[in-house]
Amino acid sequence: MEETIKLAETDETEKQEPGRGAEKAAGRKKTLPAGKTADTWKIIRLEKPVDYMGMKIESLDLSGMDDLTLDDMIEIYNLYESLGGTGTVFQESSLLFAKLTAQRLTGIPLEALGKIGAKDAVKLKNRVYRFFFLPV
Predict the structure, then answer these.
(1) How many CA atoms lie within 13 A of 44 on its CB side?
(2) Which residues 6+ apart lie within 8 Å of 1 measured at CB?
(3) Domain boundaries along the sequence of the chain
(4) Quick one: which H or E segment has residue 50?
(5) 0.85 cut: is pTM over it?
(6) Which of 74, 80, 106, 115 stands the most exposed, by the fewest C-beta atoms within 10 Å?
């Protein structure tokens, strides 16, 4: 028998339209298999693994985002700007910012991260954006 962990999950419609779906959201639970946590969304399994200089990259673990500091972010922003990142509004939604953040968290060279497939790259960008701007 598989053990499960239940977590409360909020309903976005409740935030947008008070009262609508509140009863439904209150009773809704998200069930996760044993051994999994709510942070599993921070681990990206690449659909197309990358081989780079003898290193095989099959996943990106972004779970360290919770531990990023102000100094870490300043370094990422400075590097973003020096590599040609434009604009200071929502740079967290760009592919370059996601690439720099993933490099900081995983230690994988930027050149290797540049080889991941387009679909995986957009997934990475969306996960980084989600961490900073969407409730988890």
Answers:
(1) 25
(2) none
(3) 4-36, 39-133
(4) strand 43-52
(5) no
(6) 74
Q: Please report which residue ranges of 10-117 form alpha helices under DSSP H.
A: 12-16, 22-27, 70-82, 95-106, 110-113
Instruction: Give residues with Cβ within 8 angstroms of 134, minimum separation 6.
Output: none
* pLDDT tens per residue across span 8-30: 333 333 333 344 343 333 443 34
What region does 107 belong to: left with phi over 0, alpha with psi -120 to 50, or beta?
A: left
Q: How many CB atoms lie within 10 A of CB 120?
A: 20
What is the rounded distance in angstroms from the CA atom of residue 30 to the CA atom of residue 8?
6
Token pair recorded at residue 74: 């300043």
